[in-house]
């Protein structure tokens, strides 16, 4: 059987990583899922393990200036600690332009599996994606057809407690981890920490759209169980400070409350009716 290759040649997968040159799990997972497109390993010039990245991945490695990027967006604090992924996220748009790419997907470095979450008849069943080229092509086709800033796959944690709600929703206005972006629809990620929530709440309150597709999901390691990346900064600052960045950016609709059952922790909570504009059906329009 002939392998189906990606149709979109102006697309690449960007794996954002720091301090894990020998443990870029997502790279192996992409190949295991049948990916044949372009892959770039995005690192910063403050990474002490940069030489090992170049040794392992050669010309797939692209380095950006972390301090320079930090001066281009609102970090929401005056700290000098740059152990965060937001700098790489914002650097990706310039990197894509330099590479002549129109579209790219941002991936964290710790995904051990890409999954389908439903059968064709919408029966809830998880199984591994083996033809991710066609999945990315379909996601891009959908992305191109609608006026949104970014779309993403779900996270397996989104399905805790059952699939009834997400099955009814099909799409959700949150957007995390697997950002599909375009250089023709640029935006800046906001805040040093919790940049994904800061961004999709703040931009959507102004009329932009971010979406998550719940037919697909990524499985990743628990953040604080994997050395490197953002584990250190989360361990240092805790979830309260992390979540409060989103409160600062969207105080009218994001709050902090306890989360979990056994190991309870403080976490952000988004009041969506107060976050995004609500459009009434035209049937309510007065003649």
Instruction: Specify the biggest β-sheet.
Output: 5 strands, mixed
Assign the CATH architecture: Alpha-Beta Complex
How far apart the termini lie comes to: 59 Å
Q: Which segments are poorly predicted (pLDDT under 50) over 5 or more consecutive residues?
A: none
Element string (H = helix, E = strand): EHEHEHHEEEHEHEEHEHEE
Count of alpha/pi helices: 8
Q: Reading side by side through the largest sheet, how are the strands ordered?
A: 3-2-1-4-9
Beta fraction: 15-25%
Q: Which of globular, elongated, flat, extended, rod-shaped describes the shape?
A: globular
Q: Tell me the Rg in angstroms.
A: 19 Å
Number of domains: 1
What would CATH call the class?
Answer: Alpha Beta
Task: Tally the beta strands.
Answer: 12
Helix content, binned percent? 25-40%
Please identify the structural class as seen in this structure.
alpha/beta
Q: Mean of residue pLDDT?
A: 89
What key phrases describe this protein's structure?
287 residues; Spore Coat Polysaccharide Biosynthesis Protein SpsA, Chain A; 5-stranded mixed beta sheet; 8 helices; globular
Description of the molecule:
The protein has 287 residues and is an alpha/beta fold. It has one domain (11-229): Spore Coat Polysaccharide Biosynthesis Protein SpsA, Chain A, CATH 3.90.550.10. Helix content is 29%, strand content 25%. It has helices spanning 25-32, 50-57, 66-70, 86-99, 132-145, 164-169, 195-204, 231-249; strands at 11-16, 38-44, 61-64, 103-108, 111-118, 124-128, 150-155, 171-172, 179-182, 210-220, 254-259, 265-270. The longest helix is centred in the last third of the chain and has 19 residues, at 231-249. The mean pLDDT is 89.
């Amino acid at each position: 059987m002939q392998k189906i290759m990606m149709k979109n040649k102006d697309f690449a997968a960007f794996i954002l990583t720091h301090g894990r040159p020998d443990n870029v799990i997502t790279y192996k997972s992409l190949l295991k899922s049948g990916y044949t497109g372009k892959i770039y390993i995005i690192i910063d010039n403050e990474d002490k393990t940069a030489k090992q990245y170049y040794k392992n991945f050669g010309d797939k490695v692209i380095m950006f200036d972390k301090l320079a990027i930090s001066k281009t967006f609102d970090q929401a604090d005056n700290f000098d600690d740059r152990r965060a992924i937001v700098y790489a996220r914002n650097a990706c748009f310039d990197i894509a332009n330099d590479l002549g790419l129109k579209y790219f997907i941002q991936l964290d470095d710790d995904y051990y599996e890409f999954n389908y979450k439903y059968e064709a008849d919408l029966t809830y069943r998880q199984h591994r994606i083996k033809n991710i080229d066609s999945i990315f092509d379909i996601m891009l086709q959908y992305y191109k057809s609608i006026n949104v800033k970014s779309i993403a796959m779900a996270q397996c944690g989104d399905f805790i407690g059952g699939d009834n709600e997400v099955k009814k929703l099909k799409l959700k206005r949150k957007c995390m981890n697997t950002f599909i972006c375009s250089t023709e629809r640029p935006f800046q990620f906001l805040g040093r920490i919790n940049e994904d929530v800061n961004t999709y709440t703040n931009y959507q309150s102004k009329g932009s759209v971010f979406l998550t597709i719940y037919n697909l999901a990524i499985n990743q390691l628990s953040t604080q169980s994997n050395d490197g990346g953002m584990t250190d900064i989360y361990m240092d600052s805790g979830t309260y400070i992390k979540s409060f960045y989103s409160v600062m950016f969207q105080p009218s609709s994001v709050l902090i409350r306890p989360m979990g059952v056994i190991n309870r922790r403080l976490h952000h909570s988004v009041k969506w009716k107060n976050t995004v504009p609500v459009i009434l059906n035209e049937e309510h329009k007065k003649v």
